[in-house]
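Ticket #4471: structure output looks truncated?

Reporter: J.K.
Steps to reproduce: submitted the chain below (741 residues) through the standard prediction queue, then opened the result file.
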Amino acid sequence: MIFTSGGPGGEAPGNFSVPQVTCCNLLYCPVKMDGEEVMVTSRRGENITIKMQLTQEVAVNSPQFMQVVNILFNSIATRHMGLEQIRRDFFNPKKAIPIPQHKIELYPGYEFTIRNYNGGTLLGLDIKHKVLRTDSVLEFMNSVARGPGGNQNMITKQLVGAIVMTKYNNKTYRVDDIAFDKKASDSVELKRETTTYIDYYQRNYEMTIKDKNQPLLVCRSKTKVDGVECFLFYRGSTPCDPLQKEILIHLVPEVCFMTGLTDNMRANFKVMQDLAQYTRQKPDDRLKGLLGFRHTIAESEGATAVLNQWGLDMASNISDLEGRQVAPPVLLTKDGKMNIDERKAAFDNITRKNFVITSANMGNDYSVIVTSRDQANAREFMETASKVGPACGINIGPSGNVVAINSDRAEDYINAIRNNAANSKIVVCLVPNDKKDRYDAIKKHCCIDQPIPSQVLQCKNLNPKKKMSVVTKVVMQMNAKMGGELWSVHIPMKKVMYVGIDTYHDSGSSRSVGGIVASMNDACTRYYSKTTWQPSKQELISQLDVVMSEILRAYKSKNGDFPDRILIFRDGVGDGQLLAVKEQELKNIKDAVQRASVDKKIELVFTVVTKRIQQRFFLKMGRGLNNPPPGTVVDSVITRDELFDFFLVPQGVSQGTVTPTHYNVLEFSTTLKPDHLQQIAYKMCFMYYNWTGAIRVPAPCQYAHKLAFLVGQSLHRDPSPDLADLLYYLYLTDLVGGEVS
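Returned output as attached by the reporter:
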């Protein structure tokens, strides 16, 4: 038992009628118990006596007190605000927003966390929406079965990895397999009886299972599942040990619903537009929703009573803080310097100019592989490329080698590449659809078996309405993949190596892949990449010392010396992993740097970059609110004493509320000032070659993400070292649908 000194104080009477919060085997109370030990007797069939002992007092500013307050607010959300907890967030299914034309609905809700900041104890609150599809998993399985190749393998492939939800208890599960050898009419042994899935749902939830022969979904839980209303099975023939680390859960597809959006939905402009009406809220509307959380608590007698019992209160408005704006960098192009629009943080009009610093010498030395029926698309692509490419300063001609194949099978594309790559500097594959198996096979061949830069483009993206825009992006990407330099930004510092690190969980194996990308020149236009592997779902990279040593050797080989400074941006880890990152990854990197440069002291900065955060900033404009301008930096009030952290708004948005990026600096062994790091972070957001403007993270982070994504999604093996100096892993998603990679 722990007494929290943040409550109203005083001594508790000898009985136990005081408010309390339990966590694991600890009991927290806002008032101090009478005596060091308390005996409590309860009657549940027989007398049960519990002995509780006072262990410590918890100070208001301690991590334990923050834990108590978070538990309290979680309880308030579910018991007094009518919200349902789904994973870590809280939603209101009773106020679901139906979007029937797309068979989806939105659950409105909140995510929140309470922490101690420089500005005091603050509630970090944001609006959230849960996307739930109105078609059941069984309906989805039947639609896949009716489609092309609709067998059990296809159904399994479509569902494994998906997150489903059971509405009767608002719990979510990850589908790990499908048990086609089991069905809903099967018998199942519960603690006190044997029944069937059908009878169980009818008796407990008044739900009638219509399809008695439907197979069952298999979900694996790696922790003890307590009180979950589903059926638990053991791995093997012996009863499940409650402490066993992995438990199998069987669910009936008819009572499960798909969550999230499919790739086709994300590529559908109309779907995303209809969703944006509710999810992209302007600053004034978002603030209204945030204050609604405070108003609901204030109107609830139960919630107010809980806060009063613990001596807590909420401010009536959001926190005020000051920020400052960092000027955008000067863009460097072939013709010299160019200013960037600081309101938009973009330079879209650059494609109308001869801007490319260095063109890859493609000429007509490229192959376009296409099915016989789509040869007209190949000619259209080459003709358009020969117009937009030279206009940008990229050397590409209209007479590439067109290779017609008989079918759109992956084998035909690979054979065509194998037979024509010797005379090509890059291959372009025009495909009729987004079939993943074919895409993966092409990328595996071009990145591993026969290393050559490759481009995959769907034919539908060459329609007259968007042809010029799409081909311009494709040609720019082809130039970058072949080592060409599109643009740069002015950074006065020389001999600096910028490194991006990210992790992706391999979809095809039990491993996770780490992508590491490092700049190799002062202009940050050339990069060196490397991948590494670790156990499944593990975010931390265990071999960073080996990778960093190789990257440092590559830098020295190209520049004749090691860099004076190394600035590392680490993406893909949360606040809870900062200490582990510092003790493992940062330590490995420091060891590698010290071993490589015995005679030279290299300055090192290691920063964790986080995109998924609760914080939102609003700029006061008269009586209303607006988004803060790009380049806004906030490093007070909502930062933390024990950390060196800051927030940066890198982009301008025309819809909704802008999301800042959070930077946690774990190592700052440098003569640079904090202001310099903030400016560099902003400048590096403009160096991503797939976007003519600022992105949310520094470019090396995004390159590392693209590398890890390609390897984890398609290759499942290390790419050929022959491609390490090229940005071969670039891909982009066109706004109106279709992958360009």
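Triage note (M.O.): checked the attachment and the full token line is present. The two ends are 58 Å apart (CA to CA).
Status: closed, working as intended.
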